[in-house]
Specification:
By secondary structure, the chain is mainly beta. It has 2 helices and 26 strands. It has a 7-stranded antiparallel β-sheet, with no helix packed on it. It binds fe (iii) ion. The site of fe (iii) ion has 6 residues, from β5 and β10.
């Protein structure tokens, strides 16, 4: 069953759409215990796409590409958002949280001052497909207490436009429908869009927010630019634009992500993202001294 919000949809009108500034092809890599994935938002794009730090896409029918999962590892200073399109993944962390992430569900974890967690597949065959997004925390929130929420698929607000676009609102708001998660400082918008053939979709986005789309089925048109499957399109920050208009000539699925930049220094060392090298050094020391596990109990 899907959370129904029909009847409360407000059509969004975009007078001037953003265009595509740049198309990005992801980089094939592996992480955790040999999980194959495509890193779409890499470290070199962190300033341009502030407050987002990373986007990984994974999608495979081969168990050997995912079976190792992500055994115990730490995070500090940001939030991880895992959106599972297909598959089952078990999460456990040092704050005592445990949850099962499956088809259409979202796991939102605020690492804050430190979490050690594992993300392990709970299937031995079949398809595993989804995304992991890293969202930065403002300097003053980096050492906040860890927080975690599992959002089952049925609890992700969803609506369908007259034009034939089904919209799943993971974060932020679209057409008057509030998403599952809201954040004041970064104001993340995270939509999963399913287009019927020939459908268009308009989304209001403040001009100062950084925004991108990633197409995972079919293809999109943004202004005069085609965005093929498995491409990210960084949307231009045109001060005259009030949003974006997307069009699909064939059945298409894409995620649209936007957020308010923090404009703070970014210092990253693996799973730690702070503002200075001194804070990174401290994070490594705290982790090695076992202070992540105890900091949350
Ligand atoms: Fe992790």
């Amino acid at each position: 069953m899907t959370l129904s919000v029909l009847g409360s949809i407000q059509t969004e009108v975009v007078a001037k759409s953003r265009g595509v500034e740049r198309l990005v092809t992801g980089t094939a890599t592996s992480d955790g215990a040999g999980v194959k994935l495509t890193r779409v938002l890499t470290q070199s794009l962190q300033r341009r796409l502030d407050p987002f730090l990373m986007l990984d896409a994974f999608g495979t029918d081969k168990a050997e590409d995912y079976i190792g999962g992500f055994p115990d590892h730490p995070h500090r200073g940001f939030e991880t958002v895992t959106y599972m399109l297909a598959g089952r993944m078990r999460h456990r962390d040092s704050a005592g949280n445990e949850g099962l992430l499956q088809n259409g569900g979202v796991q939102w974890m605020t690492a804050g001052r430190g979490v050690i967690h594992s993300e392990l597949p709970e299937q031995e065959d079949g398809r595993m497909e989804g995304f992991q997004l890293w969202l930065n925390l403002a300097a003053q929130d980096k050492m906040t207490a860890p927080w975690y929420r599992d959002i089952q698929s049925a609890d992700v607000p969803e609506f369908t436009t007259d034009d034939g676009v089904t919209v799943r609102v993971i974060a932020g708001a679209s057409h008057g429908v509030s998403g599952a998660i809201q954040r004041d400082k970064t104001q993340p918008l995270y939509l999963d869009l399913h287009f019927d053939e020939g459908a268009s979709f308009a989304q209001v986005i403040p001009a100062g927010h950084n925004a991108f789309i990633y197409v995972y089925r079919g293809a999109l048109q943004v202004g005069g630019t085609g965005v093929a499957r498995q491409r990210m399109a960084i949307l231009a920050n045109d001060t005259n634009s009030d949003g974006v208009v997307l069009h699909a000539d064939e059945p298409t699925r894409a995620i649209l992500i936007a957020g308010q930049p923090l404009n703070e220094p970014i210092a990253q060392h693996g799973p730690f993202v702070m503002n200075t090298h001194e804070e990174i050094f401290q994070a490594v020391q705290d982790f090695q001294a076992g202070r992540f596990a105890t900091a949350v109990n």
